[in-house]
Write a structure and sequence with these properties.
By secondary structure, the protein is of the alpha/beta class. It is built from 6 helices and 10 strands.
């Protein structure tokens, strides 16, 4: 399993946001750079890519998952009309949806009863909405017991290695960041479920993810350079 990099996807240029500075969010008045992660809206005048997804996405956030560190919110920024975000325990009650809506909704979670995306489409038809749990692997036990999501079909993904720079303790490298899970879910749905060729239509789901990774990689490079210089001086 290889790790996806920005060279494997067709991202919009980072140049339009290269000189961005923090400004006040018009809604909550907080100081933000590119988008307000609390209001979940782009900052006025700041470039953000826009994508059309093959189905809608619902995100259920754990209360201890900080908005400032949540990659899941990137989906709301680049696909606002197709993305809903619920802050646990204030969750949409899927049990009140119509039978058709429930039949076409899939939770991305590798439980014992989970089936593949391909099998879901073959046995149940199209996926109109995926639901993802935005939390750490240590919080997921509580989240999956949320009453409002019981009875929905679980779907598991193929195995991928994360490109995330902040791995969770004792979680294997196959533990994906939430935005990675959303991206791979939608790709599998388009390629394996709908049997349609994928040509990078929603690669920009990973735009803010890889922009952040740029900053992290630069910080790490600077740190190791200073460390090396210090060791050289102490010889």
């Amino acid at each position: 399993m290889s790790v996806i990099s920005e060279h494997d996807v067709h991202l919009s240029s980072f140049e339009p946001v290269a000189k961005c500075v923090k400004s006040m969010c018009p809604k909550c008045k907080a100081s933000r750079m590119y988008f307000c992660y609390d209001c979940r809206t782009p900052q006025p005048g700041v470039f953000t890519p826009s994508v059309k997804l093959p189905c809608s996405v619902d995100i259920i956030k754990h209360p201890k998952e900080k908005n400032s560190k949540s990659s899941a919110l990137h989906c709301k920024i680049v696909a606002p009309d197709q993305t809903r975000v619920f802050d646990y325990p204030d969750v949409h009650d899927y049990s009140k949806d119509s039978e058709e809506e429930r039949r076409t909704t899939a939770i991305i979670f590798p439980s014992a009863s989970a089936i593949s995306v391909e099998e879901f489409v073959r046995t149940r038809g199209e996926i109109k909405r995926i639901v993802v749990l935005d939390c750490t692997w240590f919080q997921v036990g509580v989240m999956q017991k949320t009453p409002q999501i019981q009875g929905l079909q679980h779907v598991s993904l193929q195995s991928y290695r994360t490109a995330f720079w902040r791995p969770q303790h004792k979680v294997p490298e196959t533990g994906l960041a939430t935005i990675e899970a959303i991206y791979y879910s939608l790709r599998e749905y388009q390629e394996l479920g709908l049997k349609e060729t994928y040509s990078g239509e929603f690669d920009d789901l990973l735009y803010w993810f890889f922009l952040t990774k740029h900053f992290v990689d630069e910080k790490q490079t600077e740190y190791f350079k200073r460390k090396e210089e210090k060791e050289e001086k102490n010889k």
